[in-house]
Design brief:
This protein has about 400 residues and is α+β, with helices and mostly antiparallel strands. The protein has ten helices and 19 strands. It has a five-stranded antiparallel β-sheet with strand order 2-1-19-18-17, with helices on both faces. Helix 2 runs antiparallel to helix 6, helix 2 packs parallel to helix 7 and helix 7 crosses helix 8. It is elongated, with a radius of gyration of 25 Å.
Length: about 400
C-alpha cells in the first residue's frame, strides 16, 4: 500500500528498548525532584567517581561561588599546597624604600607587622620616602561581575593590597572614626571613608562607589605599613606614593607569607572571599606564563590545569574569566563539578561552611548552588538557576538515599 511503513524488525525493537530503558533512570531521577528543581541539575558520585544519581548532569548552568572549588583545585595542582606568596623590598641610594607586590591575598595587618620587624632585623630603621610598586599586574579592568558597592565581596584586586582591600572602621555617637580592630591602627583613609556613616562598626571595601583601584590599594597599603613602621620606633622622613622599582635599587628582603596556599584556599572557600580567590586565580597565570599577571593568562593557566586534571569534561567550564564566581557568563555542568570534586578529594578537609564540613555554596540573585561531599562521603553538586531556593531540601533528599 502506498505510504505504508516497512515492517519493524527485531533489531530495531532491541535498539529502541535499549534507548528507552537507558534513559529511564535519568528521567526518573529528574521526575523525583520535579517539585524542587524547576531549572537546574544535580549529581551524586561515589568515591571512585561513578555517578550514582543525576538529573540534567550535562546541561550548563551559572555556578556562582561553587567555581571557587575549581580555582582552588587548579591552584593547588599548579602552585602546590606549600606555595607562599611573596612581597619584595628594595632600597635605592636616596634611602627610599620600594615595596613590590606579587598579589599576596593574605597581606593582613599581622603579616605587615611581621615584615616590618624583619626589615628592622636587617638594619633598616630609617627611610626617606615609601613607594608602592603595582607593576606585577597589568589588568585591563577588575574582575567581570564585580560591583561598586561598599560590601567586602566587591573589593578590587591589586598587586599590592592589605587586609583584603577592606577597611574595618568604628564610628562613635559623636561621629569620630577609628579602627574597629586591635591589630590595625587608626589610618587617614579610615577618617575619609567613615565620614557621614552612622554610629557602629562598618567593614567596607576601599573602592565603595568606584575608584582607581591600584592607587587606592597603594595608598591603603602605604598608610598601614608606615603606621606599623612608626609603632616600632622607626623613622620615615618623607611621604609615600606609587612608583615602580628603579633598575639601580637593591633588593633588601623578600617576605614569604606565613600562610601557605592550602591555608589560603581553606579561608577563601570557607568565607567565600572573592578578593582572595581572584588573587590566587591571577597567580596561576603569572606563575605559569610569567608576570605581569593578566586575566587572560590566568584563564589559560586554570583551564589547562583543569584539563590535565579532570580530562575532557573541563571543556564544560565555559567562560571562566575570573576565579570567584562573580561572572554570570561562566557556565559549568554538574558532570564537570563531580569530576572536579573527585580530584579535590585529597583536599576535602578544606571545605567547611556554616559549621558543616565538606560543603561549598554559590549564591546570586536567582542562583542557588551547593557542592561538596555528603555525610557518607559521596560527592554531590546541586545547580539551581531558578527563583526558588530549594537547595537545602534537595541535599536533604539526596542524603537520605546516598
Amino acid at each position: 500500500m502506498k505510504g505504508s511503513l516497512p515492517p519493524i524488525g527485531p533489531g530495531f525493537c532491541l535498539l529502541l528498548a535499549l534507548v528507552l530503558f537507558g534513559r529511564q533512570p535519568a528521567l526518573a531521577d529528574c521526575r523525583s525532584f520535579s517539585d524542587l528543581i524547576r531549572n537546574g541539575a544535580y549529581g551524586v558520585a561515589d568515591s571512585e567517581g561513578r555517578t550514582l544519581s543525576s538529573c540534567n548532569v550535562n546541561r550548563p548552568y551559572v555556578p556562582a561561588s561553587v567555581i571557587k572549588i575549581a580555582t582552588a583545585l587548579a591552584a593547588l595542582r599548579l602552585l602546590g599546597p606549600e606555595h607562599r606568596f611573596t612581597t619584595e623590598f628594595f632600597i635605592d641610594q636616596e634611602q627610599n624604600l620600594y615595596i613590590r607586590g606579587t598579589g599576596d591575598p593574605f597581606l593582613v595587618s599581622e603579616e605587615v607587622e611581621r615584615l616590618v620587624s624583619a626589615l628592622r632585623v636587617r638594619g633598616l630603621d630609617r627611610i626617606n620616602n615609601l613607594f608602592i610598586d603595582q607593576g606585577r599586574y597589568a589588568l585591563t579592568g577588575q574582575a567581570p561581575g564585580l560591583g561598586v558597592s561598599g560590601n567586602p565581596y566587591d573589593a578590587p584586586v591589586a598587586a599590592l593590597a592589605v587586609n583584603f582591600n577592606t577597611v574595618n572602621i568604628a564610628v562613635d555617637q559623636e561621629g569620630r572614626v577609628g579602627s574597629a580592630e586591635l591589630q590595625t591602627p587608626d589610618l587617614p583613609i579610615m577618617e575619609e571613608m567613615g565620614a557621614g556613616l552612622p554610629p557602629g562598626v562598618h567593614r567596607l571595601n576601599i573602592c565603595r562607589g568606584g575608584c582607581a583601584a591600584e592607587e587606592r590599594s597603594a595608598r591603603y597599603a602605604a598608610e598601614l605599613f608606615l603606621a606599623k613602621w612608626l609603632e616600632q620606633g622607626m623613622i620615615c622622613a618623607g611621604g609615600h606614593g606609587v612608583r615602580n622599582v628603579p633598575d639601580k635599587a637593591r633588593l633588601l628582603y623578600t617576605h614569604h607569607n606565613s600562610r601557605n596556599l592550602e591555608e589560603v584556599a581553606a579561608s577563601f572557600l570557607r568565607f567565600s572571599n572573592n578578593y582572595a580567590a581572584n588573587q590566587v586565580y591571577l597567580a596561576c597565570g603569572a606563575v605559569k606564563y610569567g608576570y605581569p599577571a593578566t586575566w587572560a593568562k590566568a584563564a589559560k593557566a586554570v583551564a589547562g590545569t583543569l584539563a590535565d586534571t579532570i580530562g575532557p569534561r573541563a571543556a564544560a567550564l565555559e567562560e571562566m574569566e575570573e576565579g570567584a564566581g562573580l561572572s554570570r557568563r561562566t557556565r559549568v555542568t554538574a558532570a564537570a563539578i563531580l569530576d572536579i570534586l573527585h580530584a579535590f578529594r585529597p583536599y576535602a578537609h578544606l571545605l567547611t561552611e556554616n559549621n558543616r564540613p565538606g560543603i561549598k555554596s554559590g549564591t546570586m540573585t536567582g542562583i542557588y548552588n551547593l557542592a561538596g561531599y555528603t555525610r557518607t562521603g559521596n560527592a554531590f553538586v546541586i545547580l539551581l538557576n531558578q527563583q526558588e531556593n530549594s537547595r537545602d531540601r534537595v541535599l536533604l533528599r539526596l542524603e537520605k538515599k546516598w
